[in-house]
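INTERNAL TRANSFER SHEET
From: sequence group
To: structure group
Subject: Tubulin delta chain

Please process the attached sequence and return the structure record in the designated field. Keep the field labels unchanged so the import script can parse them.
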Amino acid sequence: MSIVSLLIGQCGNQVGSEFFKAIFNDNHGDYNGRVIRLDDEFANESIETFFTVKGEGNNWALGYLLNGPLCVEVVNDLLMAELEKCDSVDGLITTMSLAGGTGSGVGTFLLRHLGDVCPKVPVLAQLVLPYRRGEVATQAYNAVLSLGHLLCASPGEAPCGFVLHENDLLHRACASRLVCHRRRQTYGVVGPLDQVPLVELNRLMAHLLGGVLQPYTRSSCGYTLCRRRLSRLLFDLAGPADYRLYRLHCLPYHPNSEARYFATETWPQLFRHARQLLLTGACLEDRMNWCVSLDNLRGHRRQPLLACAGVARGTGAGEVLWSELTAGLDVEGVMQPWQVNASSPMGMCTRAFNGHLRGVFLATNGGGLVIEDDHTDEASSTDVCAPLRMVRSRAWRLFTSSAYLHQYAQFGMEDPRASLLEAFSVVEQAIHLYSQLTTS
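Return from structure group:
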């Protein structure tokens, strides 16, 4: 089965590049990558690309209202050409950032029109949320406008699901793992932790996605190879159309290849950590709160898991019991018209992934902990809507001061205030729907 990738903007191209490197390094072979690259800064490439001379100026309106309609036909032709080369299409993965103008503006326009080209192809969108204190003044506006247009669309007009990546969490995870390696290289002199190359964040995102999409077997199929892995992932995470926000988790993660050979994790240890990771909603082990349990949430409110899919990789992967991993964390007891299939088996592969002798990769819809009145930028909540609340709060502070609204008016947005208010309402609705699932 073939998976076609659509990489939009500088961030999307960089993350996609690391994703294909991770797949190639995991199992060397002769592969043909099905990828369309789109950026508004020119580069000389020989693969299927579409570039323009200048960027979007970090302006969502310029990308969505002006340049998006200009490039949609060309991109659709490139996409159709790649799809026609496939014997069987498993799905489409798009990757873009919500901070700048190309990813948020042009990317949102293209995602809204993918149904015209491939109406029956499953689509998974990777959305990279900006730093809480990023260098783009309008990044909060751009993120809210993109989320407002994507979340309000019906499943036929928008991706089947959205994987959210938070730059701050990825940065913190990479910094804590690289500090020891840097200390050895600099003989004990360590620079500030904020000096983490962006390539490390891209590698972590590639590791998370590659871990759930590389080949594996499922016991429900008689331990046969799962060929439609992207479709299977979207099917396992699917719920009502209003609940399409997903997150990826993994453990362990060692960016330094030398440390992987000295890993001592056992399957019982990884099982305990994975269960605590699902309870706390952490991406990696860094933000797991071991003081919290199902019996004592210590002032938090728990958001139940709507759905969960996972893959165990390494020798003895069959030791992980799927039903016990998610027991007590699903929507049992919450009055909803759907139920999670808790007996759904975890995928497994006895071969190590990218040098990690043992590893567990999880994809979740819902889950995490919520703190009451958590309105600060340094939010402590770990539920899937925590980044949405952060972006909404920062954009609302700008909006109440009418800051930067003229930047959008000059590129075709007739009433920036009305457009932003509509986007705010969509984001608020998504936050409200997930909050209704919260159990004490």
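Handover comment: The two ends are 43 Å apart (CA to CA). Residues 240 and 433 are 11 Å apart (CA to CA).
Transfer complete.
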